[in-house]
Amino acid sequence: MDLKHLIFIFLLLSSIFAQRQYIPTPRHSHTAVMIGKKIYFKGGVNQGFDGLGFEDFFYLDLSIPIDTTQKQKIPFFSENNEGLTANSWSISGLGGINKDQIFIFGGFMKDNSSLVLQYDSPNKRWITPIINGSPLPIRRRETSGVVDDEGLMYIWSGTTDTFFGQPFDIINDMVILDTIGLSWQIKSTPFARYSSTAVLLPDGMILYIGGRSEDFGYVPMNQLPIYNTKSDTWFNITTSGIIPESRVGHTATLVPDGRIIVYGGIHMIGEAYLPPKEDLIVLNTSRPIYDWKVPQIQKMPASRSTDELHILDISNEAEYKWVTTMDKPVYHQNDQIQEYHNDFQTPTLTISSQEYKTATGPANWL
Ligand SMILES: *[C@@H]1O[C@H](CO)[C@@H](O)[C@H](O)[C@H]1NC(C)=O
Ligand SMILES: *[C@@H]1O[C@H](CO)[C@@H](O)[C@H](O)[C@H]1NC(C)=O
Ligand SMILES: *[C@@H]1O[C@H](CO)[C@@H](O)[C@H](O)[C@H]1NC(C)=O
């Protein structure tokens, strides 16, 4: 073998090994966004409720077969975090003209000089965008955000925190961040909520599931507010079917057939954080009256205090299954993290930690 061949083999091997696999620390209150076949994770905390959070940045590569029983081999890879500050309780969305820019908003940030951070994914670099418009939105946690087709990120309500130099308060507004024009506007809203989960429906409506209201009460799961992004109006819908236990910090994933898969979360009783009675609930939005169902499924296997990755197979509506492997790549180009594709398996990938479990949805905790 001549030198040229050896060099070629060396280059080939070094390109294969250049990207070292990464083993993330257990966490909750991180945020995640899916671009192509990669789910990018940012921030989060390991213990307790508060904290400045992690500054690592990594992704899960869904084009590689996953076997969750082989923890060392789960295809997590570390990514450039230069310019990313440690954060937790932030939310994120995919924006920009080509839907390839990650926008992180609010939450705890070690360097809190900017409310928003932007990851330019094609160029693999973090930037601090200059966003026009006044007043500046209030930094908040326990909010939720979705980005529509026009690149507008809708961030409703949430709470301030003494950590941000502000007394606790529930914020009554809708921040609309234009991820293309880099400007924002703030609208007042008829009521406020925190720790609910937003789902963007195909018709431009945003459905809010769960959370707590201004009187700190857990809102009933059969009364769901909807924000019409086109007309800037609100209405409430009443669901049919069972009424699942109220919850906060769950994830909600809209799949292309109109099911919203709601997973996890907590319901506090006294001082105790308890998982809601039903681990997994499904809202059918293909029906004129949205309908809740509790699928027949084993409860999440021994999970609430581990750092495992969990995969839910939703391909058979009659039989949801927790699985440990995912062989086939997910081929869908997503623009919203909650729009997981379900050609094969997948919708809810979770990494759990301590008493919370956090999924890749836009929710903060799970
Ligand atoms: C920014 O961080 C500093 C130092 O931790 C803190 O005193 C201040 O209240 C924070 N301000 C905001 C708006 O988060
Ligand atoms: C929707 O429900 C909220 C409370 O959850 C209430 O404050 C609001 O007035 C309701 N809106 C309409 C249009 O009924
Ligand atoms: C959702 O509703 C549609 C229309 O009624 C129905 O065809 C479909 O089977 C339902 N899906 C589930 C999971 O119940």
From TrEMBL:
SUPFAM superfamilies: Kelch motif (SSF117281). It comes from Funneliformis caledonium. The keyword Membrane does not apply. Keywords: Kelch repeat, Repeat, Signal. PANTHER family: ACYL-COA-BINDING DOMAIN-CONTAINING PROTEIN 5 (PTHR46093), FIBRONECTIN TYPE-III DOMAIN-CONTAINING PROTEIN (PTHR46093:SF18). This is 14357_t:CDS:1. Residues 1-18 form the signal peptide. Pfam families: Kelch_KLHDC2_KLHL20_DRC7.
